Amino acid sequence: MVDSAQGLRAGATPLAVRMRPRSLDEVAGQRHLLTPGSPLVALAADRTGESGAVSVILWGPPGTGKTTLAQAIARSSGRKFVELSAVTAGVRDVRQVMEAARADRDLYGVSTVLFLDEIHRFTKAQQDALLPGVENGWVILVAATTENPSFSVISPLLSRSLLLTLETLDDDDLALLVDRAVVDPRGLGGRVELAPEARAAIVRLASGDARRALTALEAASTSAISEASTDASGDTGEVDDEGADGSGVEADGSPLPVITPEVVARAVDRALLRYDRDGDEHYDVISAFIKSVRGSDVDAALHYLARMIEAGEDPRFIARRIIVLASEDIGMADPTALGVAVAAADAVQYIGMPEGRIPLAQAVVHLATAPKSNAAYLGIDAALADVRAGRAGRVPKHLRDAHYPGAKRLGHGKGYAYPHDDPIGVVPQQYLPDPLRGAVYYSPTEHGNEREVSSRLAKLRRIVRGER
């Protein structure tokens, strides 16, 4: 057992490691995977190693319990447990495990559970080396990944394994873990008092990540103890090795150090947002941002903008997406939106971050609150579809270039009506090729500026197409 006083001192095993559950009963969250008879429960309950357990891939964000589940299964099961990390292991290591597992099965009747952390870091060749052992039952693979297995795990391995998705821990789960760590002898051993507001702050900062919650708690407890020892006259700052009795006082009668919200704020700089710039969360957040702007929810749009900024997303990437939004989802409903978006991108390029967040926010507010229309976007896509399908035709002769020698002899420009010579500036004239006469690509909405455009466009089409 880890000495709890030592656990509060620098260099000790991290609190998150000390508090790792010893059995599935201690696991917080993931109830959908731990129901009676579920594959994980069956795997942990089988102490004989004789049941036909299936390999599993655990997919979920960091801090949701992938390693915890694997180790809890190892402690509960009668199988041999081998752990590899894809960061350090190679094909040779995998093959050695497979050979040893086959020998253990054939000679001693012992099956092996291979826990492979961060399988998404394995190359295709390394993952191929796992296939014989999984297919022939030499090992039961329990693999963990934070990346979407559909993109990071080879298909043959996926088809031979059961994919289990872990969910982000909710606030109740995190609160349970924090409370347990405060009193458990493996954790803080009751040597600090946690104020309810500080507990709520730690849960909020953790963003569903158990490891982050326990790391924040440990940092806050160290700060609280340090501040208490500094305030106490004549105190050496050492933690009393005698256990606390839960009365809110040390063994010598002095009050326990208290973790307050202020202590948490000083110990933990910011909530480390769950955001992987190269992974699923990157795409999920930008998708939510785009859909929030399109849906005119300015508060949600600013929230996702803040998440991207705080996570260190490239502001140029954000600015490019805002420019696309201005034309794709707003377009002619508010023609100024594109100018605002481009100006914001220029401003970010000119002044940099963190000040660049201000023009970005202004552009996002403008776009989110602007009337919406995707008519221009749909119009160009419809026109492109016709062109790609071969529906084009020759340019009408009166529209062709007539400036080069011999062009007029070919009839180029003959009969062209110059609009500026007409009193209203619009003349009846065919502009589309013959096969596309009467085609309509742009259909304005009745939103914002497009309401006026719609009325004007109807008149323009009647004149140009000779329908007046």
UniProtKB/TrEMBL annotation:
- Answer whether the UniProt record assigns the keyword Hydrolase to this protein: no
Cited CDD domains? AAA (cd00009), HLD_clamp_RarA (cd18139)
Q: Which UniProt key words apply to this protein?
A: ATP-binding, Nucleotide-binding
GO terms for biological process, alphabetical: DNA synthesis involved in DNA repair; DNA-templated DNA replication
State the signal peptide span. Answer: none
Record SUPFAM superfamilies? P-loop containing nucleoside triphosphate hydrolases, post-AAA+ oligomerization domain-like
Q: Where is this region: Disordered?
A: 225-253
Could you tell me which residue ranges the AAA+ ATPase domain spans? 52-188
According to the UniProt entry, its GO molecular function terms are: ATP binding; ATP hydrolysis activity; DNA binding; enzyme activator activity; single-stranded DNA helicase activity
Plastid: present as a keyword of the record?
no
Q: Which family does it belong to?
A: Belongs to the AAA ATPase family. RarA/MGS1/WRNIP1 subfamily.
What is the protein name for this chain?
AAA family ATPase
Taxonomic source organism: Agromyces kandeliae
